[in-house]
Design a protein that fits this description.
The complex is a heterodimer of chains A (333) and B (289). Chain A is mostly helical and 333 residues long. Chain A is built from 16 helices and 2 strands. Chain A starts with a helix and ends with a helix. In chain B, a hairpin with a 2-residue loop joins strand 1 and strand 2 (136-139). Classes of the chains: A mainly alpha (333), B mainly alpha (289). Chains A and B meet through helix 5, helix 12 and helix 14 of A and helix 3, helix 4, helix 9, helix 11 and helix 12 of B.
């Protein structure tokens, strides 16, 4: 009870301190770059997981919202001189609004065909932005004007501020997930994920719940899009709507633990660390190695532990500290 | 103007024959095993590489290497069903979708590591041949591919409707429990269905080789087309998939002709989304479990 909760708080504060101090201790730009990637994809995974994990609406088109967020803030910044901080929120709102018609179409399908329809929506958006030459620079894309150090325009010369921004975003995403997990909506989502027809039969308004969670998920994903273009100072349709973003969002959640608070974080740490190690061993010359390893990890997880690796870690932790079985702990707590 | 349209329709129809082979494979696995195979395009890609290497190192014509790629991929299909797909049946959407999805990523990236991203082509004596129908131009390689694709679809139809194994497959697709009660071994039927489906993908790869470059990502377009065709043509329905594939080939070709070279896919995806918007009843029933 107290002991359990206290140790939870203790671990969290320890984690927070480590994460806050990390950029002060680690000065290698390469290492901070990897940390930023981990935090960013963990955040995208958390956003995906809200809908894909809890409600089991397995979207493979979240790049649509990443791209909309990226393009909204960039267009506002370059054409109207509006700060990306405002553009970020605007991008989120655009993504939210876009999720309404997209959801209305795609939610008519279930399971694999929902996934396919979401792929189609992201691809259509990418192709449209390739065509918008006057409005959004077409296929060539554009660089973000570099203003040096300009916090109000979300531009920094050091990497550490980016790290803290994306860390804050991840904390926000996890806090939202935590709140939703414990609300009525969380229970509705899990019910829909288990069996949508049964959930509707007991009075869950499934279309409305799915629409709402899709809006939240799209909003958060768009924030990641704005952050990413600000970080790399470049945007084109192929970067903003890249299919691999949709894939990675789903992958990190599944590998870590689908429909759990920490699953996407664990999954990202594992996959991105693997990928960074592979890169330093093999160099970036050998194409395809990273995704080969990712897909082997994914196949192993699906066949061996479809609930994700988070469960493996908690089992191991419980075994090591010899905590009482989960059932008893739940009763006490 | 009329000639441009007719030419676009011919081009689309001919490539639609290849789409049909891929779509029929997807719809066959979906109908019988109840799995959506996201890796179907990668098996097309493997069929292409088989034909490419046989043509490059042994000088075997891609149309003859059909006799290698089809049995090889049939075997791969049986093994795939036995060792991987069988283990996720009945486990819910997530493992079922992401197992074949991971397989697709794996095969694509293995191909990238082994064969590099270079485009590989096979040049046959008929690759550049064409004949003229009035002002219209019919490329020979595509015509041969189309005719053989239709012939294979016809053979599959005869197989499903006249042989015991084919009837068992249709029975298992309609009602697996009753089929089991009638003494049909589902594992055997599933293995044959996956094998046949992959053999069709392999055939599509070999038929493409005389006029289409092989690359690790070559299968992607075909599987996307197949998914749209399978949704449009009512899931699990082979004739529906065939007709929808031909229609999509034509739609894509008209899109390329009249909207722009990079717009073929926009037209196809727009067709999918519009169908979902305005005729969902016929489709949602199939998409739902």
């Amino acid at each position: 009870m107290w002991g359990l909760r206290l140790s939870g708080v203790l671990w969290l504060s320890l984690l927070a301190v480590v994460l806050l101090v990390l950029p002060l201790v680690v000065t290698s730009r390469f290492a901070i770059d990897i940390f930023i990637r981990i935090l960013l994809f963990a955040f995208i995974g958390v956003a995906w997981n809200l809908m894909g994990g809890y409600a089991k609406q397995l979207s493979l088109g979240h790049a649509a919202y990443f791209g909309l967020g990226a393009y909204t803030s960039t267009i506002l910044q370059i054409k109207f001189g509006i700060s990306p901080w405002i553009g970020m929120i605007a991008g989120g709102v655009v993504a939210m609004l876009a999720s309404l018609p997209i959801g209305a179409l795609c939610f008519r399908l279930r399971g694999p065909y929902f996934a396919i329809a979401t792929i189609a929506t992201a691809q259509v958006l990418m192709l449209l932005f390739l065509k918008f030459r006057d409005f959004a620079w077409g296929a060539e894309g554009t660089t973000i004007p570099n203003l040096g150090s300009s916090p109000l325009m979300m531009q920094f010369e050091a990497k550490a501020p980016y790290y803290y921004i994306v860390l804050g975003m991840l904390v926000l995403g996890l806090a939202i997930t935590y709140r939703i997990e414990r609300s009525w909506m969380g229970f509705y989502l899990v019910a829909i994920g288990e069996d949508e027809d049964a959930a509707e039969a007991v009075g869950v308004n499934a279309p409305q719940v799915k629409r709402n969670i899709y809006m939240i998920s799209a909003f958060l994903t768009a924030l990641a899009g704005t952050f990413y273009v600000q970080y790399i100072y470049f945007i084109d349709p192929n970067t903003a709507f890249n299919f691999s973003i949709s894939v990675e969002a789903a992958l990190v959640s599944i590998v870590g633990g689908i429909g759990t608070l920490w699953g996407p974080v664990i999954g990202t740490v594992l996959l991105e660390t693997t990928s960074a190690l592979l890169q330093s061993w093999l160099g970036s010359g050998l194409g395809g190695v990273q995704l080969t390893v990712y897909s082997l990890i994914l196949i192993t997880v699906i066949l061996w532990r479809p609930t994700g690796l988070l469960g493996v870690f908690t089992d191991a932790y419980n075994w090591i500290v010899r905590a009482p079985p989960a059932g008893k702990a739940a009763l006490d707590g | 103007m009329l000639e441009t349209v007719a030419q676009a329709v011919i081009n689309g129809l001919l490539i639609g024959g290849i789409y049909a082979l891929v779509s029929i494979g997807v719809t066959l696995i979906f109908g019988v095993v109840k799995i959506v195979n996201f890796a179907q395009g990668e098996f097309v890609m493997i069929g292409m590489y088989i034909s490419f290497f046989l043509a490059t190192y042994y000088g075997i014509d891609p149309l003859i290497s059909l006799a290698v790629s089809m049995p090889a991929l049939f075997l791969v299909g049986v093994l795939l069903q036995h060792f991987l797909i069988r283990r996720v049946l009945g486990l819910g959407d997530m493992p079922q979708i992401f197992l074949t999805f991971a397989l697709s990523l794996l095969l694509m990236n293995l191909a990238l590591m082994l064969f590099t991203a270079n485009y590989r082509t096979v040049h046959t004596w008929y690759s550049d041949e064409a004949f003229h129908l009035g002002a219209l131009y019919v490329p020979l390689a595509k015509l041969v591919a189309f005719i053989l694709a239709m012939a294979l679809s016809g053979i599959l139809w005869v197989f499903l409707h006249t042989t015991d194994l084919g009837k068992a497959m249709r029975a298992a697709a309609q009602n697996p429990e009753v089929a089991m009660l009638m003494g049909i071994n589902p594992n055997r039927v599933f293995a044959v269905a996956t094998g046949v489906s992959l053999a069709l993908a392999g055939a599509a790869g070999s038929l493409l080789m005389p006029f289409y470059p092989a690359s690790p990502t070559a299968g992607q377009v075909f599987v996307l087309m197949a998914f749209v065709a399978v949704v449009l043509g009512t899931l699990g329905n082979i004739k529906g998939a065939l007709v929808a594939s031909l229609m999509m080939g034509i739609a894509e070709s008209l899109g390329i002709q009249f909207v722009g070279a990079d717009s073929g896919l926009i037209v196809v995806f727009a067709m999918l989304l519009l169908t979902l918007a305005f005729r969902p009843s016929g489709l949602a029933g199939g998409g739902a479990r």
